[in-house]
Amino acid sequence: MDMNEIKEIFFQECEEQLAELESGLLKLNDGDRDPETVNAVFRAVHSIKGGAGAFGLDDLVSFAHVFETTLDCVRSNKLEPTQDVLKVMLKSADVLADLVTASRDGGGVDASRSRGLVKELEALAHGELPSSSGHDAPKPAAKAAPAAAPAAKAELLKPSDDSGFQPIPFSFDGFGEDDEPAVEGSLYEVTFKPRRELYSKGNEAALLLRDLSRLGEMSINCDTDALPTLDKMDPEASYFSWKISIRTTRSEDDIRAVFEFAEWDCDLEVKFAEEASSNEELPMVPVPFDLSILDDSSAGEDERTSERGASEETVAAALSAAETASNVSRAARVAEKKESAAASAAAQNNAAAAAAGAGQTIRVDLDRVDRLINLVGELVINQAMLSQSVVENDATGTSAVNMGLEELQQLTREIQDSVMAIRAQPVKPVFQRMSRIVREVADMVGKSIRLVTEGENTEVDKTVIDKIAEPLTHMIRNAVDHGIESPEKREAAGKDPEGTIKLTAKHRSGRILIELADDGAGINRERVRQKAIDNDIIAADANLSDDEIDNLIFMAGFSTADKISDISGRGVGMDVVKRSIQALGGRISISSRPGYGSTFTMSLPLTLAVLDGMVVTVAGQTLVVPLTAIVETLQPEASAIHSFGANQRLISIRNSFCPLVDVGRVLNYRATQANPVEGVALLVESEGGGQRALMVDAIQGQRQVVIKSLEANYTHVPGIAAATILGDGRVALILDVDAVVAASRGQSMKPEMSLAATG
Amino acid sequence: MAAKKAGPASLKLPAVLDLNEASNLHGKLVSMRGSDLRIDASGVERVGVQCAQVLLAGVKAWEEDKKSLLVEKASDAFQKTMQLIGINNQNLVAKEI
User: Fold this and answer.
1) Per-residue model confidence (pLDDT) at position A314
2) CB contact under 8 A, B54 and A170
3) Under an 8 A CB cutoff, do A235 and B46 touch?
């Protein structure tokens, strides 16, 4: 595995961590105060930082560090996660995501934005921690930490270098009582009790203690009481715990930072015991040479080094004269890498431990899954062909071959279901991306908007997920920019100044339904209508229903924004959205209530690969009707058919009337209306909720068909969702039930329009 | 120092006393119980806490058995680590000779 692959894995993990981070922050934003949520957020940033350090992504590390510091204040209850705080945090999460992307794909990020956020974050942390000052401070701090680590590691990695130990000479005799503190600082009591996991994850308590000892003057007391007898002990368990008092000029956070990669595997308590006796600001500036002089001068008390930077210098000093400084730095660099690699490994272990509860997963290249799915699709077709030819050649229908075929059919089905399940993914990642867009756009236009998501665990095929992101983004921007009114207007209208956009995903009749609802002003029908007339989309005297007017916004080149803004209204409007949704085999519709907001409903197929269908004959053509749409089938009787208007017919089913849709007529397969009595009626439920009876000539059977996209191979055909290959090798078209139903209703509309008018 | 009688057993500690070595070391100590033991820690370059735990348990076990267990020729690294982690057991923290 080369470095790039490892890096790729890191970036994949980053995405997961970022998602975790964002959902955690949103939970906090909603008032969740569960410490575990805060921890999860912290862990996410922390893991990113750890990994980024391993790859030398300095920008990412330094930003993550500042972010983490502030989060830590929240975690330790020093900072109340108010809405304002979370606003900064959410923005920081966005910048972090940008930095990750920039690190992966190259390119830069808005430096002023991240700098501004760094300042804001620090200001938040600052409120409680006066020791860190200026927005440049954390960078050196961040760098100092890894710099010290290599020094630490270097001596262990190169143990032959006995002198390597000298920078942290440590003597027990010196620690009896509070001997005169030559190094000034506050006194902290640290209780450190590692758990077994700490060791099993490759951490070493001794190293942590050594790093701790570098922070200042430390006296240690090892509690060995828990140690069982030799024969009873588990050599890999953890028995020792420590009570440490350390006098340091560093802050409590710096002490905690020593344990940062181990903190989930140990019980750690850091207590402030005594006030600092000198200016705390001073030691923040590394003054290594001064300190080494200090070390020299206080020869007897060289056991204390208060400065990490200094310890590095002293390592250099202590190394034999033959070794050049470059050697040291090289060793330090190597060690740094190892250290951070170990650190990120530890962080990953944490993540793995967390994930273990949620079931194990593997990462598989999407291409492989696609290939498998494709093959299974062919298998299904092949199996269908085989069974058809057996049926044709075996009149008796009782042979063992038939039995075997049935079993084969079941098996193929199961294989197919399982394979499809591999591709099914929750829509969560897409929804999460939307919350960022809402934040950013709302910020830009000065509105306050809340995104509420529902059903983000609804699963849908990966391709669908990938492809809805773009149209959804567009719609969200629209909703924020045009849909929701400005806070003043909202207040004037007696609404909550904070707008709400609700994004919902749910399964409905074998499709996924994504709804985007805003509580804004709704569609201004007068303006839409006027605009449509101005643009020659409709005739000036056209008589349109409200629904039809609403749906005008899906027409090409339609934009009602008064002026072109940065966010939306560039003329590439809802028509593009609609086209991309249609390309997915989906539909989009809008319903709007003036003053109460608009709801966009997108209905998409769950998978783009297979479908359970009823094979029917219409005017000599073979069509496939998605089984999920069919409620029941019936043979109409002449007495149940009633005429309605000029050319509409109704069928009476169990004392209720249902419009009869002549499929052959709608699709222009025949010029005249078919006689319902000679055919079969399929009672279908359209997405609008109502029932329709589709009239077909005959039912051939029920079959699972593999969807072959018409758009990809030919072009979109109104009323047809896709095509498939039947068992006999012929191509059959798959009916777009809702489109057909809609077309039967809104005949005044163009075919393009009628597709959308399902609401 | 170890008693001269009956020639005490000796155990040379490996250079790296890390997590992987803890079980080994434990096994060795358990098998060597019952006689005086000299531990040669001169070659030790790295000591993990878990090995320190084993060693300390060993010291206690030997004390129980009223046998002597002494670490001799402790390397710098060994001593420093023991100091660092706060083990000041007489038998483990070899005195400068």
Assistant:
1) 44
2) no
3) no
**Chains A, B: CB contacts under 8 A, how many?**
100
The β-bridge relationship of strands A691-696 and A656-662 is: parallel
pLDDT given for residue A616 in this prediction = 92
Structure tokens at A144: 């100092």
How far apart CA A660 and CA A666 sit, in angstroms, is 11
CA–CA separation, A709 vs A52, rounded Å?
Answer: 42
Task: Encode A525-545: b = buried (16+ Cβ within 10 Å), e = exposed.
Answer: beebbebbeeeebbeeeeebe
Phi, psi (degrees; rounded to nearest 5) at A91: -65, -40
Task: Report the distance separating Cα A719 and Cα A606, nearest Å.
Answer: 19
Strand order in A648-653's β-sheet? A630-634, A680-685, A691-696, A656-662, A648-653, A641-644
Please choose, from the candidates A560, A575, A397, the residue with its C-alpha nearest in 3D space to the C-alpha of residue A481: A560
The parts of chain A modelled with pLDDT lower than 50 are 128-183, 276-329, 331-332, 336-337, 341, 347-348, 351-357, 563-571, 747-759
Within 8 A of A230 by CB-CB distance, chain B residues are 26, 29-30, 33, 54, 57-58, 60-61
For residue A692, which of A554, A511, A509 has the smallest C-alpha distance? Answer: A509
Say if the Cβ atoms of B54 and A230 lie within 8 Å: yes
Measure the CA–CA gap between A435 and A449, rounded to whole angstroms: 10
Q: Does A23 touch chain B (CB under 8 A)?
A: no
DSSP H/E element including A715: none
Secondary structure class of A608 (helix, strand, coil): coil
**pLDDT tens, per residue, chain B with 97 residues:** 444 445 677 888 888 888 788 888 888 888 888 888 888 888 888 888 888 888 888 888 888 888 888 787 778 888 888 888 887 766 666 544 4
CA dist., res. A623 & res. A697, Å (int): 11
pLDDT tens digits, one per residue of A259-295: 777 777 788 888 877 654 444 444 443 434 433 333 4
